[in-house]
Amino acid sequence: QVQLVESGGGLVQAGGSLRLSCAASGRTFSSYAMGWFRQAPGKEREFVAAISRSGGSTYYADSVKGRFTISRDNAKNTVYLQMNSLKPGDTAVYYCAATFGGVVVAPGGMDYWGKGTLVTVSS
User: Per-residue pLDDT tens for 45-82?
Assistant: First the structure.
């Protein structure tokens, strides 16, 4: 069982930056590939970024490539999402998720989810 708690969301102006954090419980954090997903009002949950168990491989949605960076610290059981050059279209609830083993980019393939943190980007 893995429990995930996101933090770092908030209100930011377009062009600004935020860093999201996701703290995981348990001793086997390094056994899980991690991902960030987001869901805007009235839209389906979508993939944002993912990182392999070791942190050696990362994956991004085209919409955030070059602006967002995912990273992890296995010693701290934490995964991060650095978000730069934010746009109003990035407004959403951002969720951290974990899957045992290899990277998964489909929301349905994740095993554990946090409750989300709201990011609002004003124009």
Answer: 999 999 999 999 999 999 999 999 999 999 999 999 99
Q: Quote the tokens at residue 20.
A: 């999201």
Angle at alpha carbon of residue 95, lines to 61 and 69, rounded to 5°:
45
Rounded to an integer, what distance in angstroms lies between the CA atom of residue 97 and that of residue 108? 11
CA nearest to 4, candidates 87, 95, 93: 95
Query: How confident is the model over 8-36, as pLDDT tens digits?
Result: 999 999 999 999 999 999 779 999 999 99
Cβ atoms of 47 and 35 within 8 Å: the answer is yes
67: number of Cβ within 10 Å: 15
Burial class, 83, CB count within 10 angstroms (exposed 0-12 / middle 13-18 / buried 19+): buried
User: Is the distance from CB of 91 to CB of 46 less than 8 angstroms?
Assistant: no
